[in-house]
Amino acid sequence: MKGRVLVVDDDSALAEMLGIVLRGEGFEPSFVADGDKALAAFRETKPDLVLLDLMLPGRDGIEVCRLIRAESGVPIVMLTAKSDTVDVVVGLESGADDYIVKPFKPKELVARIRARLRRSEEPAPEQLAIGDLVIDVAGHSVKRDGQSIALTPLEFDLLVALARKPWQVFTREVLLEQVWGYRHAADTRLVNVHVQRLRSKVEKDPEKPEIVVTVRGVGYKAGPS
Amino acid sequence: MSGDSAASAPGRSGDRPGRPVGRGKAASRWRHLFDGDLLQGGVQGSPVVRLVMRWVRRPLLPVIRLWRRNIQLKVVVTTLLMSLGVVLLLGFVVIGQVRNGLLDAKVKASQSQATGGFAVAKQQAEQAVSVTGEEGTAPDGRPSQSVIQWMSDLVASLSSGGQGAFDVVTLPSGGDSGSGRGPRASGGVNPAASVPAELRERIDTSTGAAQSYTRIVYAEKDKQSQPALVIGKQVNDPNGDPYQLYYLFPLTQEEKSLSLVKGTLATAGLFVVVLLGAIAWLVVRQVVTPVRMAAGIAERLSAGRLQERMKVTGEDDIARLGEAFNKMAQNLQLKISQLEDLSRMQRRFVSDVSHELRTPLTTVRMAADVIHEAREDFDPVTARSAELLADQLDRFESLLADLLEISRFDAGAAALEAEPIDLREVVRRVVTGAEPLAERKGTAIKVVGDQQPVVAEADARRVERVLRNLVVNAVEHGEGKDVVVKLAAAGGAVAVAVRDYGVGLKPGEATRVFSRFWRADPARARTTGGTGLGLSIALEDARLHGGWLQAWGEPGGGSQFRLTLPRTADEPLRGSPIPLEPKDSRRNRGLDDAGLPRGGDGEKRATVPVGRPGADDPAQSARDPLGRRPGASAPTADPTALPGNGARVVARSGSTRMTAGTVSGTNGGTDGARPGDADRPAAGGEGGDGAPRDAEKDGEATRGR
């Protein structure tokens, strides 16, 4: 599997090392060290995935993440030295799909990148309904009353996972495994934040969700169609 | 759930008397009044009476509460009552004085008037004797007509002197009622009814004058009786027979004066009382208003609004209170903001160090991994070096991660993200994760008590970290024997206990295991290389939940670590559904160290309740003097052991000892090193069967955080 990866990191040694590892795994890395130049580099290289350090000179990672997310749904994986709640949640809320805490093992990084890129393989044509939404899985589109709703690939995957088994309650751990591709349970905040983001896009009233329903003490399930 | 669950204990505290009111001196006074002395009195215990009492008391409760809460009301009511007392006392004294003054004059005047009258009566009788000579008396001794006539004349003449000022009454002498000299009276007075019988007796027996107070009763029905002074004397009639002559002086005028004085005093008194009440109200308001303001501001301050200040006017004591208060608030604010700054700096520093360390570490890590991957191409020495590099980087990483985690706790930056989770899920994940290690060690991990959900509001990530730590520790130190993970829920608590049958813990170690970088045996080879911070972090995690993490162990008999969490966040723990010491401990099975059955007395001994963690040593030992008495029969263990850190040590006869540590809540694990205490032998050999068991329950139930 080939993939272009944009590495946004100011630490040249780490960037070089990332390059070595990514090339070794068959990716095509490109590099940018400055937050201000990140967006231009993103437009230029059109990567399949962005590896983004949160602490950057110029614009910080959160801002860069927001800017990229504003114009593209391309998977963003944050590199962060801080696993503190606030930093991670802020990063995820600004649009990152996943995060990986330094120091990480190369294999772990590659696994995450592959999990994020996996979905670009062509899915079978499939129509799903969840609440009053119609999902075209192959066409990667979600429509309410003919109006299409823009979702990032990750949010789309999350919605599809729920919609495929509307009778099932998904625990956060199961969702992490199915959507993010984690084999071991990791940070369930990922799920929480992305469910919030998804709700803010697909729910009529995010305060009273009808599409993605919380099952207290267990997890989430699809709302009744 | 086990039979001797400690969490059943909290229920016992539920049946306190349902008095919804608070404490304090006034409260106790009222409680005394209403609960005991006044209302229940001698009929305590009767349910019907208690019901009635409750029914009577209920409408009074708001009043009592108002009384207790409102100092202004208290002062005003007290002032009213006290000034009422003073006014009443004053009134009685004044009225007494006035009455005495009025009466003294009247009595003197009356006495002289009466004395004159008595003299006149005597004189007239003598005159009559000299005039009539011996004719006056019939031979049969009956009073002649002329004496009767003379007496009527006497009454008329005596009373004519003071029309309205006095009346005159004559009465026959006591033993002479049969004689024809009937009672006579002037001014329409009913003679018999107006003179008290007691006075008549006195006159009969003495020759002098006597006086008394009475009411003049008139013969005419519609004329009202009136108070009077009556002065009487025994006088002889012309025949020499005694009769009683009375002067009745009406006191109507004096009574009028007195009632006027009374009325005036009552009005004045009422005004004084009301005015004093009003003054008290105003004065107290002056003091209470700033106090209430201070209380309100103090509440707002403690709620976090540190910029709140009191308004200060003038230079009086209240103003000084306000100034002092404001100064205090100012200093508090300063200190708090300083501490906040420090904490923020600390967190910032940790965060920065974290980032600065982690970025190069990531590069090193990746480089090491790349080298490690390629180690087959190297010569053996370089290949081994690459392995060591990768391994030690792992260790370095986990050490760094743990250090940062601990420093986050220390900085107070750890936040709890509690949501309802099923602990069975967490346990399942943890057990699954520990399986590879368990297989290597030849250990089987059993889960007990997972039939029904064990749900609690908790941070799944933290709970999982705690349990992973406990399970991995149990497997590592379990020497290949089984590890049992037990779940239970009861009362307001859920618990997970991890039991192993490995080397166990030596006395005193049960608390020290939670100390940072503590090693059970420094000489022992480190096979799995934990960071030494795992249990410290686990303890902090438990504490963050408001829960307990406790350890128990016996040397060679394995150990049990118990995590107890409140079912809902912010609910204080009162007990744990799982006893800290497992049922299959050697002691509970009645075995000694070598696993042989022990004879006799020791097996029923239970752990002894500890004082609340943080209770200091002397207090603790003072509370239980029995513990040190040699040969005492009741206590079977020394509760003074490790009092400061809440650890429990149960000493047994002979060499066998057990330890159980309670490190939870406010006390840190670091103060646990008190080996001497742990080794203290038990006082007394024979243990009662029931009491220690209860004691253990109590101990677990009451142990605070």
Textual characterization of the structure:
- Chain A is an alpha/beta fold.
- Chain A folds into two domains: 3-118, Rossmann fold; 127-222, Winged helix-like DNA-binding domain superfamily/Winged helix DNA-binding domain (Arc Repressor Mutant, subunit A, Orthogonal Bundle).
- Chain A has helices at 12-24, 35-45, 61-71, 85-93, 106-118, 153-164, 172-180, 189-202; strands at residues 3-8, 27-32, 49-53, 76-80, 98-101, 127-130, 133-136, 141-144, 147-149, 170-171, 212-215, 219-222.
- In chain A, strands 2-1-3-4-5 form a five-stranded parallel sheet, with helices on both faces.
- In chain A, β11 (212-215) and β12 form a beta hairpin.
- In chain A, α2 (35-45) packs parallel to α3, α6 packs across α7 and α6 (153-164) packs across α8.
- The termini of chain A are far apart.
- The model of chain A has no long low-confidence stretch (mean pLDDT 83).
- Chain B is α+β, with helices and mostly antiparallel strands.
- Chain B has four domains: 9-13 and 24-69, no CATH class; 134-257, Beta-Lactamase, CATH 3.30.450; 318-410, Helix Hairpins, CATH 1.10.287; 419-702, Heat Shock Protein 90 (2-Layer Sandwich), CATH 3.30.565.
- Chain B has a seven-stranded mixed sheet with strand order 7-9-10-12-11-14-13. Chain B has a five-stranded antiparallel sheet with strand order 2-1-5-4-3, sandwiched between helices.
- In chain B, α10 (317-373) packs antiparallel against α11, α11 (380-410) runs parallel beside α15 and α12 (423-441) runs parallel beside α13.
- The radius of gyration of chain B is 49 Å and the shape is rod-shaped.
- Chain A: One of its GO terms (cellular component) is protein-DNA complex.
- Chain A: Residues 125-224 form the OmpR/PhoB-type domain.
- Chain A: The modification 4-aspartylphosphate is found at residue 53.
- Chain A: Residues 4-117 form the Response regulatory domain.
- Chain A: InterPro entries: CheY-like_superfamily, MtrA_REC, MtrAB_MtrA, OmpR/PhoB-type_DNA-bd, Sig_transdc_resp-reg_receiver, WalR-like, WH-like_DNA-bd_sf.
